[in-house]
Amino acid sequence: MFKTPLHEKRRVCVIGAGTAGLCALKNSLEAGLDAVAYERGTEIGGTWVFSDKMPKDEYEEVHSSMYEGLRTNLPKEVMGYPDFPYPNDIAESFITSHEVLEFLQSYADHFKLRPHIKLQHEVIRVRPRLDDWEVYVWDHVTNTCDPVYYDFIYVCNGHYTEPDLPEIEGMDLYEGEQIHSHLYRKADKYKGENVLVIGAGPSGMDIANHVRKAAKHVYLSHHLAATPNTAFMGNVTQKPDVERFTRNGAVFKDGSTETFDHVIYCTGYQYTFPCLSTDVGIQVIDNFVQPLWKHCININNPTMAFIGLPFNVIPATVFDMQVRFSLKFYTGKVEFPSKEEMLANLEKETGERWDCGYYNRKKAHQMGERQFEYYNDLTRIAGIDNVRPVVHKVMKDCGKKYIFELDTYRNHRYTILDDETFVKTAT
């Protein structure tokens, strides 16, 4: 399986230095591997790096999705890494994006990761060879591109870069401004305007709440079975899905019509891996990345792992568990199942998801409450430490608060007392 002789350190390539990439780098180094993380940006932190930059044209990519005034929708008490929690001197539980970035920087400094991170280095192609990986890295400073060879690949490029836009009749006829939430930055540009926000997930609800403070009126279009609480938003009207756009507004599926000046699509993101060659053996079909064993191991080339594809999860927890899980195999402590066994497991797990109502390929990596079964599975297979029970309890307490208690849920503080218990106090 490996080209590198056993008496030499095996080499690990980490693509990205955000929350997932830093975790993959840190754990790989601790496991005794020779690891390097490539980050195309000028600093670590991935999507948590705020930038006002907008694309110059349709071909330019903007990496960050952060906007002014963003606060987390999970308490910091469950957002840290298992071996590196957020500091207690941060009073609030629901913190700003800048505080998250500072935390990631302190994580990198604490574990002395910076010497192993190459900033402004973009991985532009990854190709499997007989026993290792050929990685072409573009150095943006010297404008050179050279191949480097690795035994293992961690794909940690994030999935908040490529917007997933719906196809709605009349989008090309509508004459107002249309943007995806990926490019939303400040509410003040909507002052005195009518705005349509499409989608009532965490971003849609939060952005609607931000925008309505400046806008004349906000229409919140969604198809949630349970109606979100917008009683505190006096100038927000909930609407069903858009049937079709008109020149200056839309007709909704209940037959009603509205006019507005802007549309903000809060409709999620697509998984994209532009640097991976086709012979890597991975396809993305309707946002279902396959074939993967346990949502992370490339079944066709198991020395490649994808970190952070599951959503509706505790991000750093999932990243950490997936990395520790894969390292058990990469360090030879546990043997991979056969390809046939991994494919059979994928088929079984996918079938169970479809039976539970997750029949849409776009939901193939959605977890929610199932994430804790997933953690149990990784723990059982690889013999790694599981998530503390108190984390599960805090997550159950936080569930769906962004929909039904958006105006108040961030006014609470959580304190972890031990592995089993926590207290919540109002501020």
UniProtKB/TrEMBL annotation:
- Coiled-coil annotation reads none
Record InterPro entries: FAD/NAD-bd_sf (IPR036188), Flavin_mOase (IPR000960), Flavin_mOase-like (IPR020946), FMO-like (IPR050346)
Q: Which cofactor does it need?
A: FAD
The enzyme class is oxidoreductase
What GO molecular function annotations does the UniProt record carry, in alphabetical order? flavin adenine dinucleotide binding; N,N-dimethylaniline monooxygenase activity; NADP binding
Reported EC number(s) for this entry are 1.-.-.-
Taxonomy, superkingdom? Eukaryota
What keywords would UniProt list here? FAD, Flavoprotein, Monooxygenase, NADP, Oxidoreductase
Q: Matching Pfam families, A to Z?
A: FMO-like (PF00743)
State the family named in the UniProt similarity comment for this chain: Belongs to the FMO family.
Per its record, how is this protein called by name? Flavin-containing monooxygenase
Which gene does this sequence derive from?
Answer: Dwil\GK19621
